[in-house]
Structures are given as structure tokens and as C-alpha cells.
């Protein structure tokens, strides 16, 4: 269609040309720009055509408008004279990524047409899927002129892969042919997922019935154009006009590209009207050449920049909805998701840049809606194979091959993996804990998983390398997986993927144990530290002294010669250790002190007993080596399991090659310990637990422990089996089946847990200082009360200014050394003695019991000592009576001096008494 000089709607005398058709002739574009001096060109339908025309438009400052070239690579040209008035493919890949993410598929294989249209979307689709953590294991390219045989060969290649999710980005004619061949080759069955872009989905309504039927179950993503009355009226008029101009054509359906063409034309016409300029001429720098193919002889449109500015600012409500062009590109809009059902299509949902997947457009009006990729937000989908069950997105390849699983061939620890060859039948049997666990995991999968075990061995039947060599075979593609006692470590995870671990993790040290009980004669002293021993002994002496002070004047058990009193006090204190003290305490203060002390002794005795028991019991598990540095410092040999990564850990710790000894079985390891070849062993926890289960009485597992991931199954990087196998491992390990497998292969050990501390710390003073503080405070308080009471009773001596301080102290000490006759114990004792023998009036300490006369305050006369009724006869009697008078008089004089010093009598009275 051309707007020429005779068109009344054209605002100028020059022509505005809209180029239509599948192929744009480059010479025609040059002709129109140079000779016709067109102001704008609309219609490059392909990316290749658009790129060439864009370069011409940029030289001549002529706007280039396309409504069908959707490649994102066109925008990367950053030409100010290019306008892509169609939804870019960089937008629809976001909708595809949301679909893949919503259904949880982890791998997708894109299938592109091998031209600029197909290749232009690769980078955008890859980026969108990687942001959703979706892997692209393979890119499939189909030539535009590919034969059916070439397509079948490519489809067979796709069938041999595990991925079953495909994204098809092709032209409608090639896409329909490709999908029809895929259906004929059995790839439109249950388990497959086909998603087509708008290059095919926009033409669903114009395809033949046989073509659309071959796509049943396919999902399509295409721009959403809301149905309005204006659009319906336009379709009716357009259909009438189309049939009038093309009576032989049957296809009268109008798709998104036709609607964008109308809106783009309207926007361009509005821009031309805004410019309203009569200067539509071209300026030429060189007009000498008349060759229309001379690219350097271009004129420059004087109105091109103004027209581009007006076109960029054009906003309208077109047939496709809101039609806004910003930066030369049509703004993002809503995409609809359609499902091919039978010979028609059904809309199942929408995708918008703001809220993601949604069931209907009403949700887009809510400002509080968040972006979502949940599959619950779209309607039910009929998948290939006439099934509504969501495909898991991958399958075991259908080329008849089983999963090839590599198995390590080890010389010992057959409980984990054991490979047995039968020469008579030429068969190989693989058994063990890891094998049975893998079989149980496969049984727990919701689908069948065919596999075969292949031992990793050489011609002599030995393992064909280390465990690292076995793991790397998976990344090389020699094995599809590895099952066995394979530890999960960091450097291996760079090449393969591991499932969740199914055993305890870590590398630990095993050392021999020794019994020190018979080698130490002073083991009974170890429960307490020397500070606690000394403190306890001091308190025994202190408590004995306190009790003696409190009981000396009132308790006859604590009197007598000094040696006897010291022995009695210490005996009483130490006898409380076994609660065998027989001396009675009569003072309430003494009873209070002894009560507290007995409680302290009880705690000490019980703690000592428990600590001694712990020492004697735990000491028999004492390790011979307790530190790795001890091994390094003494340059001792250590052992490790052959082929294990533990060797690398030992080298990193600083062990030399000459110190590293290899063993292949638990028996060989025990022999190395027995003959003194090694001082310690470093191995993984499952092996150590098995080793201790056999030799638990001789060895102990000791820190440090180096962290690893435990045992896991190995799969190639990005394998979709990893997630399903890991979930199945959890189901097996948390159930009874795991206990049955462990019971069959790994017998439980009766050994004590050697992970605990193998030495018991001695009890220190810090654990009992509170008890000693209570006992000491109680004793000092009792002493203070006793001293204050004693000093108060003899305060006349303490405050006698006529006597020196040392004299007063001596008097108080002599008084303290005497019995307190006023105490209830001596009063009671005196009453009993008087009743039994009234003739005896002497104290037990040899000092007569004297009483002052009430009138003179003088002690009785010494002659009174013989008035008790005792008579003496003869000379012998006279001598005894004389001795008695002398002794009595001496005591009488001493008693008077004491009373004089105590101010009981005056010097005058003293003279009278004498």
C-alpha cells in the first residue's frame, strides 16, 4: 500500500512506502531511498532483511519500522532510526522460564531453526533459564531446508538423552513439519513436554487440521491481544476486504502480526501528522553517480530525525491494546499460554511481567499481587499422550541401554562392597551394605530404573585405580553412576554430583589403649588436687582446735595433759572422716560447728569416692597417643586405607611418605598395630566403627575429626536423578529397611563410646571452696561468741589498770585452763561425787575446793581440811596430818593471791586471812 500524491489523507506530495511480502529485495530498498526519496520504510519481515534495511535507513536518516522481525539481536544494533513494533523474543523467554520453573523441571533442550531468527534468541533464553537454575545440556539446530531424514536423525539423538522438556523456536511451516515427524517417531507420548514460541503459536488458528492434531498436548506461548468490539469489527471488515481482493485464498484468519502491522501503520501516520512539515527533500553531497547501487551516493532525509522523534513519542490504544514504543521497542505486554487439544487450542493461563503466571487477567489489576511461578496459578493442561499427569521432565534413555554403575573393588571391609567372580558361570556378583542400600533406594523410586553393576577392575581382578580415578570416570562418561563406599569431598564435587549422604561423616584417628591402674601406686591421690588435699588437712586441724577451745573448760574428755588434749582434738576431728568420733560434745556452739563440718566431710567423701571410681574405670581406656602433633614430633608411622583420599589429608598435616603405611583390611590394620609398624590410623568413621566393632578392647577412636560429607552415590553433573535418589535415600534411612540392612551387614559393637574424654580430671579446690567458706565462717563465729562470753565473765581482770597486759593475759589463760565449775556438766558431776563420798573435797586437778566465808570473804583455814571426819593415829598419822596441813596452806595462799588479783578481796583482807 502506497500513500501517494493523489491520496487526500497524505500530508505531503512525497510517498510513504510500506513494504510487504516474505522477501524484501535489497535493490528495491535502494531504489526507493535514492530515487523515490521515501520518508519511512515499513515491512522487513525477517531479521536478515531488517539488518540490511536498518543500515540503509541509518545512512539516509530514514525510519525503518518492522512488525514481524522479533529477534533481540536487532535492538543490539542501537540504531536510532529502527523501530521494532512487535514483541521481542527477549520477553517471551521470561514467560517460558516461568513455566519451566513452575513445574520444577531442571533441564531443558532448546530446538532452534538454524538462521538468524533462531540464533538471535539463544542468549536470552539461556540467561532466563539459568536465573531459574535450569540447566541446558544440549542445543539442537534444525536447518531451514532440512530433510525429513535429517530431522529424524536429530530426534533420535534427543531420544537418547534423559531430558524430556523441549522448547521449539522455528518458523510455522518448519515447526509444524518438525512436530509432525516427532509424533510419528513416538516423541508425542507420555513423559514428553513440548513448548513452542510465538513463531508457531501465533499460527495455530491458520494451520491445517492434520497439522494441529499432530501437536496435541503442546504448550504455546504468544502475545495476548484482548478481544474488544473494535477488534471484532476490524476483523469483519478486513475479512470482507481480503476475500474481495483474494477470492482464491481460504486462510482469512488475522494473527498478531497483522494486528501489529495495522497499529504500526497507524502510529507512523500519526507521527507524520505531528511533524506537519513540507520539507521532505533529501540533501546530497555527491550527485555525480547515477548508479543506484552506490551506497555512498545517498541523500540524507531532512525530516528523518523529526519523524523518528515524533514516532518515539506516539501513544495510542490500538487493536492490540496499549501501543507504546520506548527506545525503538514495543513495551512488554501480557503473554497467553495455550494448550493444543484435539484440533483446536485452549487457553490455560497468562504471564505478565508484574505478577508472573496467573489464571485470569483479573489478578493483574491488584497492585498487591506478587510475582509468582506456581503451576497452581494456571489451569489444567493436557500433556502429550492424552494425560493430565505432569511429566517429571526426564526419563531413562529409550535406546535400550541400562544405567552403567561403576563399583569399587576393595581388598578388605567386604561388609560395604564385595565383588565375587564365578569362573564356572562367568558371572559377577556384587553384594554389601552399599549395594543393598542402593537397591532399596531404587525400589523406593516412583518409576523403574534399569541398571547394571560394572566393577572398576583391571585384568588381574584388582581395582583399576584409586577412588578418585573411579569418580572421575563418571565425568568422562565411562559410567553413568558410581555406587559404593565413596566419600563426599570438595574436590570430587567439582566434577560430579553427589546424593545426600547415607552414613556418618568425618575422618578420625584410631590409637591403641593402655591400662595404667597397675602401674601407679599413688592412684588414690589423683581424685583430688594437691591444693584440695592441703586445704582439707588444714581444716581438719582447725576444726579440732575449735572444738577443743569450745569444750576444754566444760568437757572432761578434752582435759588432761597437753599431749592427751592435742591427741584427743586431732583424733576427734579426723574421726569425723568416717563418722566414728566417740567423744561427746556438750557445748551448743561445738555441736553447731561439728554439724556443719560433718556435712562438709560427707560431701568430700562422696565426691572423692565418685572421682576415684571414675579414675580407676576410665583409666583403662587411656589412649597411647592423644595428639597429632605428638605423632609428627616423634616421627611415628601412621596407617591409612589403600586408595583412600585420607592420604592427601595426612600429607597436608605434614606426614612424610616414609611415615605412611597402607593397609587393606581390618585384620591387616590390627597386625600393623601388633607388630609396632604404626602408632595410629586415620580413616573414615564408617570404617573405624567397623574396626572397633572387632577390636574394641584394644583401640579407641580419638579426636581430632576432619569433616567430610559421608558416603554418597555419584552421578554426572546436573543429573536429574540426584534429586529423586536423594529423596529416596531419606525415605529408606528413616525407615525400618535401613535397620534391617545395617543388621545384616554391620553388626552393632558392644564397645564403649571411645569418643568421650579418656581421662578424668581431678577435683580441685574451686569446686569446694564454698563448703570450706561455710565451715570456716561457722567455726570463727563460734570462737568469737565463746571468747566474748569468757571475756565478759572476767571483765574485772581485763580492765584492771593495776596489772600489766601480759599479767592479765597470763591470769586469763590460767583461768581458761581450769574447769568451769558453773557448767552444768561439772555441777552434775559434783553432785554425784558429793553423794557418793562426802569426805572428798578435792578437785581432780589437785587444787582444793575452797569457799570464802560469807563474813570475811576469806578461804577457810587449812585446818578445816581435816574436819571431814578423817582421823590419823600414831606417828605415821601425825606426819601425814602435818603434810596435809602444809599442802592445804600452800593452796590457801595461792587461792588468796588469785582472789587478790581478781579484786575479790583487798590487801587488808589478805592480811587478815593469812
From TrEMBL:
Domain Ionotropic glutamate receptor C-terminal: start-end pairs: 402-748
Keyword annotations from UniProtKB, A to Z: Disulfide bond, Glycoprotein, Ion channel, Ion transport, Ligand-gated ion channel, Membrane, Receptor, Signal, Transmembrane, Transmembrane helix, Transport
Extent of Basic and acidic residues compositional bias: 830-846
Disulfide bonds: 696-751
Compartment(s) where it occurs, according to its Swiss-Prot or TrEMBL record: Membrane
Membrane topology designation: Multi-pass membrane protein
Transmembrane domains' residue ranges: 528-550, 592-610, 768-792
Protein name: Glutamate receptor
Organism (species): Crotalaria pallida (Smooth rattlebox)
Amino acid at each position: 500500500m502506497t500513500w501517494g500524491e493523489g491520496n487526500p489523507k497524505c500530508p505531503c506530495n512525497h510517498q510513504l512506502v510500506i513494504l510487504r511480502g516474505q522477501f524484501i529485495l535489497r535493490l528495491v530498498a535502494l531504489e526507493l531511498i535514492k530515487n523515490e526519496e521515501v520518508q519511512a520504510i515499513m515491512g522487513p519481515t525477517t531479521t536478515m532483511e531488517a539488518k540490511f534495511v536498518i543500515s540503509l535507513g541509518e545512512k539516509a536518516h530514514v525510519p525503518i519500522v518492522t512488525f514481524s522481525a522479533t529477534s533481540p539481536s536487532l535492538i543490539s544494533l542501537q540504531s536510532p532510526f529502527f523501530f521494532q513494533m512487535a514483541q521481542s523474543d527477549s520477553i517471551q523467554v521470561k514467560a517460558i522460564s516461568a513455566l519451566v520453573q513452575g513445574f520444577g523441571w531442571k533441564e531443558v533442550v532448546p530446538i532452534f531453526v538454524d538462521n538468524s531468527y533462531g540464533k538471535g534468541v539463544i542468549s536470552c533464553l539461556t540467561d532466563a533459564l539459568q536465573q531459574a537454575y535450569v540447566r541446558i545440556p544440549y542445543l539442537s539446530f534444525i536447518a531451514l531446508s532440512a530433510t525429513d531424514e535429517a530431522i529424524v536423525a536429530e530426534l533420535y539423538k534427543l531420544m537418547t538423552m534423559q531430558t524430556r522438556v523441549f522448547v521449539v523456536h522455528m518458523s510455522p511451516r518448519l515447526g509444524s513439519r518438525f512436530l509432525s515427524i516427532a509424533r510419528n517417531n513416538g516423541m508425542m507420548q507420555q513423559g514428553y513436554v513440548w513448548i513452542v514460541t510465538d513463531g508457531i503459536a501465533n499460527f495455530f488458528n491458520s494451520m491445517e487440521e492434520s497439522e494441529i492434531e499432530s501437536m496435541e498436548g503442546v504448550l504455546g506461548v504468544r502475545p495476548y491481544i484482548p478481544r474488544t468490539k473494535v477488534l471484532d469489527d476490524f476483523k469483519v471488515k478486513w475479512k470482507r476486504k481480503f476475500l474481495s481482493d483474494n477470492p482464491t485464498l481460504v486462510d482469512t484468519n488475522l494473527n498478531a502480526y497483522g494486528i501489529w502491522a495495522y497499529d504500526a501503520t497507524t502510529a507512523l501516520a500519526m507521527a507524520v501528522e505531528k511533524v506537519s512539515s513540507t520539507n521532505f527533500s533529501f540533501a546530497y553531497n555527491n550527485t555525480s553517480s547515477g548508479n543506484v547501487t552506490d551506497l555512498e551516493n545517498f541523500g540524507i532525509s531532512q525530516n528523518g530525525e523529526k519523524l523518528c522523534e515524533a514516532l518515539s513519542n506516539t501513544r495510542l490504544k490500538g487493536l492490540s491494546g496499549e501501543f507504546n514504543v520506548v527506545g525503538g521497542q514495543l513495551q512488554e505486554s501480557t503473554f497467553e499460554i495455550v494448550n493444543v487439544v484435539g484440533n483446536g487450542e485452549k487457553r490455560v493461563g497468562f504471564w505478565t511481567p508484574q505478577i508472573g503466571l496467573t489464571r485470569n487477567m483479573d489478578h493483574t489489576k491488584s497492585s498487591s499481587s506478587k510475582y509468582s511461578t506456581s503451576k497452581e496459578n494456571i489451569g489444567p493442561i493436557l500433556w502429550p499422550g492424552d494425560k493430565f499427569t505432569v511429566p517429571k521432565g526426564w526419563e531413562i534413555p529409550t535406546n535400550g541401554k541400562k544405567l552403567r554403575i561403576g563399583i569399587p573393588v576393595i581388598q578388605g571391609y567386604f561388609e560395604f562392597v564385595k565383588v565375587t567372580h564365578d569362573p564356572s558361570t562367568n558371572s559377577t556378583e556384587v553384594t554389601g551394605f552399599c549395594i543393598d542400600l542402593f537397591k532399596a533406594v531404587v525400589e523406593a523410586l516412583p518409576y523403574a530404573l534399569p541398571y547394571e553393576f560394572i566393577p572398576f577392575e583391571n585384568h588381574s581382578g584388582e581395582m583399576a585405580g584409586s577412588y578418585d580415578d573411579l569418580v572421575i570416570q563418571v565425568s568422562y562418561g565411562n559410567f553413568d553412576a558410581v555406587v559404593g563406599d565413596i566419600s563426599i569431598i570438595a574436590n570430587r564435587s567439582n566434577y560430579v554430583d553427589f546424593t545426600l549422604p547415607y552414613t556418618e561423616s568425618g575422618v578420625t584417628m584410631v590409637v591403641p589403649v593402655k591400662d595404667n591402674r597397675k602401674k601407679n601406686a599413688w592412684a588414690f591421690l589423683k581424685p583430688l588436687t594437691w591444693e584440695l588435699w592441703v586445704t582439707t588437712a588444714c581444716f581438719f586441724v582447725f576444726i579440732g582446735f575449735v572444738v577443743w577451745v569450745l569444750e576444754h573448760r566444760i568437757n572432761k574428755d578434752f582435759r588432761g595433759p597437753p599431749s592427751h588434749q592435742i591427741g584427743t582434738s586431732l583424733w576427734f576431728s579426723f574421726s569425723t572422716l568416717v563418722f566414728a568420733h566417740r567423744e561427746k560434745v556438750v557445748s551448743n556452739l561445738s555441736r553447731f560447728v561439728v554439724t556443719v563440718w560433718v556435712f562438709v566431710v560427707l560431701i568430700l567423701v562422696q565426691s572423692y569416692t565418685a572421682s576415684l571410681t571414675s579414675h580407676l574405670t576410665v583409666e583403662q581406656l587411656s589412649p597411647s597417643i592423644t595428639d597429632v602433633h605428638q605423632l609428627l614430633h616423634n616421627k611415628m608411622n601412621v596407617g591409612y586405607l589403600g586408595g583412600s583420599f585420607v592420604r592427601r589429608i595426612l600429607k597436608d598435616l605434614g606426614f612424610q611418605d616414609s611415615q605412611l603405611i597402607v593397609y587393606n583390611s581390618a585384620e591387616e590394620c590390627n597386625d600393623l598395630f601388633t607388630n609396632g609398624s604404626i602408632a595410629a590410623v586415620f580413616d573414615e568413621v564408617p570404617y573405624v566403627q567397623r574396626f572397633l566393632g572387632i577390636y574394641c578392647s584394644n583401640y579407641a577412636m580419638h579426636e581430632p575429626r576432619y569433616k567430610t560429607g559421608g558416603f554418597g552415590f555419584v552421578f554426572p553433573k546436573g543429573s536429574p536423578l540426584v534429586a529423586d535418589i536423594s529423596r529416596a535415600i531419606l525415605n529408606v534411612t528413616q525407615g525400618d529397611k535401613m535397620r534391617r540392612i545395617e543388621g545384616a551387614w554391620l553388626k552393632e559393637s558392644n564397645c564403649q563410646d571411645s569418643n568421650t574424654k579418656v581421662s578424668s580430671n581431678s577435683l580441685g579446690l574451686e569446686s569446694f571452696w564454698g563448703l570450706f567458706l561455710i565451715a570456716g565462717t561457722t567455726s570463727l563465729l563460734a570462737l568469737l561468741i565463746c571468747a566474748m562470753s569468757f571475756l565478759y565473765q572476767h571483765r574485772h581482770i581485763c580492765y584492771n589498770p593495776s596489772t600489766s597486759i601480759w599479767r592479765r593475759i597470763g591470769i586469763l589463760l590460767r583461768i581458761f585452763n581450769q574447769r568451769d565449775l558453773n557448767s552444768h556438766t561439772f555441777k552434775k558431776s559434783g553432785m554425784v561425787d558429793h553423794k557418793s563420798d562426802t569426805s572428798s573435797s578435792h578437785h581432780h586437778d589437785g587444787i582444793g575446793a575452797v569457799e570464802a566465808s560469807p563474813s570475811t570473804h576469806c578461804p577457810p583455814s587449812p585446818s578445816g581440811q581435816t574436819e571431814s571426819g578423817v582421823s590419823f593415829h600414831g606417828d605415821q598419822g601425825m606426819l601425814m596430818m602435818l603434810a596435809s596441813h602444809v599442802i592445804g596452806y600452800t593452796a590457801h595462799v595461792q587461792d588468796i593471791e588469785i582472789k587478790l588479783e581478781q579484786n575479790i578481796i583487798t590487801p587488808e583482807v589478805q592480811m587478815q586471812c593469812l
